[in-house]
Structures are given as structure tokens and as C-alpha cells.
Amino acid sequence: MIENRLYGRDIISTRELDLSQIEQILQTTSALKAQPLPDLLKGKIIAHCFFEPSTRTRLSFETATLRLGGNVIGFSNDESLSIKKGETLYDTMQVIANYADLLIIRHRQEGAARLVADMTTKPVINAGDGANQHPTQALVDLFTIYECQNRLDGLALALVGDLKYSRTIHSFLEICTLYDIRLFLVAPDVLTLPENFCNLLKKKGVRFSFHQSLEEVVQKVDILYMTRIQQERLNEAENKKLEKQLVLTQAILANAKPNLKILHPLPRISEIDISVDHTPFAHYFEQAANGVYVRQALLALLLNKELPFMSQSS
Ligand code: CP
Q1: Is the whole model's pTM more than 0.85, yes or no?
Q2: How far apart are CA 60 and CA 77, in angstroms?
């Protein structure tokens, strides 16, 4: 029997996951994608606490919970909560922790998920906290890359767009340091990767370089990871200036490697022209579909000491 090293844990930041835990998540995702197990969350109540808008993360977590036989409580914004009467986030989550077996939280405040994890013994999953972390998205990205390229080591990835504020990029970079991955960082100067992440990449020996255009990198990479400009974190003038930069069109893909896949955590605004959707390179909707399987794996691992297929894996 393989030890489940995720049982009872929190998933707050990818920084807190080691290689063997990540491999366990990938293997569990593959197993659940190949063989659905509808009773893994039977009798469990999962609280889905979304204080910020979400389509994919919330609904894929709900689908994952229901497919594993669990029950959902929660909300998709704070309009109907007693927070509107002045109740604090701390008190609100303290109460919900007594109703549910596991808490999922998305909040605009950086560190909100950590605050909740520190107040309860129930497992907590960070579904995005401000510009800080979005660990489950990073795991979806990793699984999708592994699935479409059949490997992780030796790949070249371009990370494109808003490298400053994108929490999916920040979470994903932490995971990249665990593999032999070459990075091409493509962003306008004002949205370049923050210094602390550059220092992390240097410290971990990750090869990376900075670029201003997609044309510079498109022939060199196996994965083109596009992100939107985080409009909610910029003013109108900045948004207008930046939205037309780094738009991926079919023409730019003319010299792409045959195995290239384009990923995007979504939502897309205007950074990928819709004509790209019909090319063999587009893989972002498959990536979003994988969100259900990866989140099934996380819920199953956090809430089950043992899983049926663990004894079968190597
Ligand atoms: N990728 C992602 O987090 O999408 P949502 O904001 O729709 O959940």
C-alpha cells in the first residue's frame, strides 16, 4: 500500500508541495480519469466559499464533489452572507468549518486561505487569493502538460502576458522549479515577473529568459501558456495600452513546433484570437475539462486515508 501523503492536509500554496506529493496528485488524477469511483466522498460535505467571481474553479470543484458522491454547501459571492451585516471573514469561516468536512475558499485578500487553514483542523483548499496563489490551477496545468506531451522534464515553456499579477503563473512557477523545464518569459515591461520569483528561479537553477514578443519564442517551445491582463488590478489607461499587446493569432503560429500546445487558465479576453481555437495547437478547453479530474483527485486524497488504486500503483 502506498502512503497517502496528502491525507488531512491543506492545499494553500504550491510552495508547500514536494515532488512526491505532486506525483501522487498526477497519478490519482490519471486513475480517476480512467476509472470513475463515485463513492469516494460519500457522506462528506464540502463547503465551496467563493467571495470572488469564478466559473471554472467553482463549477469544476462542484462537479468533482458531486461525481465522487459528496455534498456541496456554499456561495458564489458574499451578497447573501452576514458579512454584509459586518461579520468578519474569520468568524464566517469559523462557523462554516463546523458545518463541513473540507473548505474551499476564493478571496480577493492575499493570505485569506492561510488565515482559514490556521483556524481549523479541517482541510482547506485555496481556490485563489488575490494575486498570490492558485495552486489547484497550477496542478491542472501540470497534469494537462504531462498528458499532452507525455513528459515534463526537458520541455520548453513560454509564459505569456501578465506575469506580475497572475496568481496562476505564480503558483505554476513554483512547480516548474521541481522539473527540468526551460522558461521563456514574455511580458510587457510593466507586467514582468516580480523580482522575488526571478530570484527563486535563479536559486533553483531554472533556465529562463525575458522576451517582448510571441514571434521571438513560438518556434522554440512545446507549450505556449497564455494569460489575460488582470484588468481588475490595473487602471483604465493601463488596460487600454496593454490589451492590444501580445495577442496570439493563427499567423504567429505558422512556424510552431508540431507538438506545440497552447494553454490558458481562462477566462480569455482578447489575448488569443478565436481563429486559433480551430488549430491543432489549441488545448485550453481540454485544460479546463481536466480541472474536474485534478480537483477530484485533490478532494479524494485529502479526505481518504487510503484509495483503492493506491495498492496497484508502482
Ligand atoms: N482559471 C480560473 O481560475 O478560472 P475562474 O476564475 O473562472 O475560476
Answers
A1: yes
A2: 17
